[in-house]
Amino acid sequence: MGQKLKIAGWVSVGVLAGALTTVSLQTMARGAMSPLPLEEIQQLSAVFGLIKTDYVEPVDDKKLITDAISGMVASLDPHSQYFDKKSFKEFKEGTSGRFVGVGIEITQEDGLIKVVSPIEGSPAFRAGLKTNDLITKIDDTAVKGLSLNDAVKRMRGEPNTKVLLTILRKDESRSFPVTITREEIKTQSVKGKVIEPGYAWIRLSQFQERTVDDFVRKVEEIYAKDPALKGLVLDLRNDPGGLLDAAVAISAAFLPQGVTVVSTNGQLEESKATYKALPEDYLRRGQGDPLQRLPAALKKVPMVVLVNEGSASASEIVAGALQDHKRAKVLGSQTFGKGSVQTVRPLGPETGIKLTTARYYTPSGKSIQAKGIVPDVMVDETAEGDLFAALRMREADLDKHLGSGQDDEKAAEAAREKAREEARKRLEIESKKPAAERKMPEYGSTEDFRLQQALRQLKGETVQVSKTLTERELEKKEE
Fold first, then answer.
1. CA pair distance 334, 385, nearest whole angstrom
2. Please, which residues have CB within 8 angstroms of residue 307's CB and are 6 or more apart in sequence?
3. 297 vs 230: CA distance, rounded Å
4. Is 89 a catalytic residue?
5. What is the distance between the alpha carbons of residues 392 and 117, in angstroms, rounded to a whole number?
6. 285-290 contact pairs (CB < 8 A, 24+)
7. Is 60 a catalytic residue?
8. CA–CA dist 365, 134 (Å, integer)
9. Between β-strands 10-12 and 190-196, what pairing exists: parallel, antiparallel or unpaired?
10. Can you name the residues that pair with 101 across neighbouring β-strands?
11. In angstroms, rounded to a whole number, what is the distance separating the alpha carbons of residues 92 and 90?
12. Within 10 A of 463 (CB to CB), how many other CB atoms are there?
């Protein structure tokens, strides 16, 4: 990772009390310490004292302080988070691509846990969990009221142990239990193949520490099978993001050396940075540059980038960079809209804080926070249409989401609610069909409608443009 990233700490652009002294020391060391609000600090101390003396049963001091920190951080935005000892370890495991659990990317919706996407090949994937499934119970514990962090803790555990999840699947109007056996999740973040002579498909499901090396190996494998590649589809659908340096590296694989990939801007001087297609901006210390092994033809091969509502964060950086530099056509539906950078700072040897420290901007200077990347060509999920896009969760739908910081344009809330109501009615009709008829085809298969349209785009053939998708506007901020 480049020096700019080392200074900032651990930087991720992905969907998660004695330390108070450490925080103060670190803050003062950066010269950013603001005067403490003494009256509010006295109130906090008074509340702490009242709980200790008056609460119905004794409460552990450490729990009170850590819960206060957790609440303070969680109130900022959906992506800032306090890590206790266990969750900090799990976070580090997640970025490395190895952890023990059920294998799902999750967020929160109406107090429940929502599946963003099951990790391909994981126990959850094999058990049939789907994007937009809601988890209402974990074993005997109701999810309502649990923090995202607590829900993750309960779903993770030791290998070969079981966890019982109660699932609410709205589009089938049913709730059902699923017992999943935990296992070590070794996420394979890169897939790919030659689809037909001259055309290849590479799918990135997440941006992890191993992603760039795996990507290079997959490209080498594809070019060994078909050296005269005429077109490439880079599939970022349902890619929730991950590490910033991996996103910069993947972008650099396709772009001219030295061009801007992404820029960031925040309060701290170290948050004001520009990341270019240069080794010093994506390599970690002591590592060689795997991109040097890539065939030169990769810089020129015609490209289409596939995205959808589940494409977030680091995947939006890549799509935005390739789109702005006119290196690829972006095809699909408008992306999630997570245009913020999270920095992970240790608060000690075993705890930390993930804090939103900057917004990121595409090379042309556009903030995509709460809006996302708008495809060059809007294409539905199926030949019959994409009738339920208004119901899908995006950054702008998350409670306390960060605004774009750039303008205050927004589609009227009334129009947005009208679109959702129409989608709900369609959903009622659709839910009466047999489940087999509503199952989405596997990515990369011959039944993958968007992939087939991407191939048509590469070949210069007519693409079936969306019947229903329109660009979402930013929300106006109320003054």
1. 15
2. 236, 237, 315, 316, 319, 330, 331, 332, 333, 335, 373, 375
3. 10
4. no
5. 12
6. 285/1, 285/6, 290/212, 290/213, 290/216
7. no
8. 36
9. unpaired
10. 183
11. 5
12. 19
Boundaries of every domain in the chain: 17-78, 98-186, 190-342+361-459
DSSP 95: H
In the CATH scheme, what is the homologous superfamily, with its name and number, of domain 98-186? PDZ domain (2.30.42.10)
Which amino acid makes up residue 77?
A: D
On the question of pLDDT at 62 being above 80, the answer is yes
Task: Return the number of other C-beta atoms located less than 10 Å from residue 60's C-beta.
Answer: 9
Paired strand residues for 181: 162
Express each pLDDT in 434-471 by its tens digit: 555 555 578 899 989 999 999 999 999 999 999 778 78
Both structure tokens of 389: 């896009």
Put residue 415 in one of left, alpha, beta given phi > 0 → left and psi -120 to 50 → alpha.
alpha
Q: In terms of CATH architecture, what is 190-342+361-459?
A: Alpha-Beta Complex (3.90)
Q: Which of 87, 122, 205, 313 is catalytic?
A: 313
DSSP per-residue codes, 106-145: EEEETTEEEEEEEPTTSHHHHTT--TT-EEEEETTEE-TT
**Cα(200)–Cα(52) distance, integer angstroms:** 64
Position of tokens 């609410």?
168
- Single out the catalytic residue among 338, 354, 371, 410: 338
Highest mean pLDDT among 88-97, 222-231, 399-408: 222-231
- Rounded CA-CA distance 478/237 in Å is 32
Residue 1, token pair as written in the block:
């990772």
Q: Which residue out of 84, 214, 324, 380 is catalytically annotated?
A: 324
Q: Identify the helix (H) or strand (E) that includes residue 337.
A: none
CA distance 362 to 419: 29
Residue 140 known to be catalytic: no
Burial class (CB in 10 A: 0-12, 13-18, 19+), 441: middle
Structure tokens at 331: 């095809």
C-alpha–C-alpha distance, residues 341 and 359, integer Å: 6
Helix 211-225 and helix 244-254, axial crossing angle in degrees, nearest 10: 30
Q: What's the angle, vertex CA 382, arms to CA 376 and CA 385, rounded to 5?
A: 80
**Amino acid in the structure at residue 461:** E
Tokens for 315, please give them: 């995947």
DSSP state for residue 273 in the 8-state scheme: E
Which of 273-277, 346-350, 360-364, 419-423 has the weakest average pLDDT?
419-423
Environment class of 301 (CB within 10 Å of its CB; exposed 0-12, middle 13-18, buried 19+):
middle
Q: CB of 369 within 8 A of CB of 355?
A: no
Which residue type occupies 305?
Answer: V
Q: Calculate the CA 362 to chain-centre distance.
A: 17
